[in-house]
Amino acid sequence: MRKKVTVVGAGNVGATLVQRIAEARLADVVMVDVVEGVPQGKGLDLMESGPVLGYDSRITGTNNYDETAGSDVIVITAGLARKPGMSRDDLLAANGDIVKKVAAETGKRSPKAFMIVVTNPMDVMAFVAMKATGFSREQVIGMGGVLDSARFRTFIAMELGVSVENTHAFVLGGHGDTMVPLPRYSTVAGIPITELMKKETIDAIVKRTRNGGAEIVDLLKTGSAYYAPSAATLEMVEAVLLDKKKILPCSAYLNGEYGVKDVFAGVPVKLGAGGMEQVIEIKLNPDENAGFMKSVDAVRQGCAKFM
Q1: Which of 48, 102, 118, 175 is surrounded by the fewest CB atoms within 10 Å?
Q2: Domains of the chain and CATH, by start
Q3: Annotated catalytic, 175?
Q4: Which entry of 4, 42, 153, 175 is annotated as an active-site residue?
């Protein structure tokens, strides 16, 4: 029997993620959206792609949460997208109401599911989702770190003219302007990038990584990124469904790790069949720790609005 994934939100991120899950032959997918006809139409279109691409995943588009029951993984992408000049924090109130509702509706129908929150501002929305569902911290996680690290790796590969497969990078903290890329822990074929690039070059890449989402919003004018966010989410879904025990930078609810409690923040975690199975603690130097704490404080301020 195939696994079951629910994706809430049939916009660009959600629909592209459904396509990626089906093409990876990972699971059957239920795509939920409030707009009548959109999830049904996109779901049918993706089903009709199956004979050509050779996947048998069943894709169900619906406006009803009942069909999500028994899901192994729930992904929340629903919410307002960023517009030019809009920060992630500008989305706070509107998306908080949306995430609270969809998390509660899906969570009560799939109480054992693992939930991945993509909606921005992501760290705060993960907090909202966990509170709305009553799920354990092992069951709820935010996507941002995988995406931010992928952007960091992309810019490193572009600068050095190497394969992205040779790059590894960590971005910690909140998924926003205060994120903390860690050059010391970022490598190319095992070599720290601090030995391969000048400081000013690294600083420029760090700055571009922090502004990665905004750069795409400015270019698109009427939308935001969805190819990379959906790919990052797929990696997380795959790690859970296939029990890969993969170490990925994700937004996790901290309970004393890194000296932080009761807030979501981007840290390395082990993802497997048990969900968020372990928070990996790495040593931060004083500057890195100060940046991390600043980022955590920014997330905490957002969470305070939903206490």
Answers
A1: 48
A2: 3-143 (3.40.50.720), 145-304 (3.90.110.10)
A3: yes
A4: 175
Closest CA to 216 of 145, 294, 147, 116: 147
For the cut 90, the answer to whether the pLDDT of residue 204 exceeds it is yes
| pTM across the whole model | 0.95
| Beta bridge partners of residue 139, listed in sequence order | none
CB 115 within 8 A of CB 135: yes
Task: Report residue 304's pLDDT band, with 50, 70 and 90 as the boundaries.
Answer: confident
- Residues 146-169 pLDDT 10s: 999 999 999 999 999 999 999 999
Which tens digit of pLDDT belongs to each residue from 49-96? 999 999 999 999 999 999 999 999 999 999 987 666 766 567 788 899
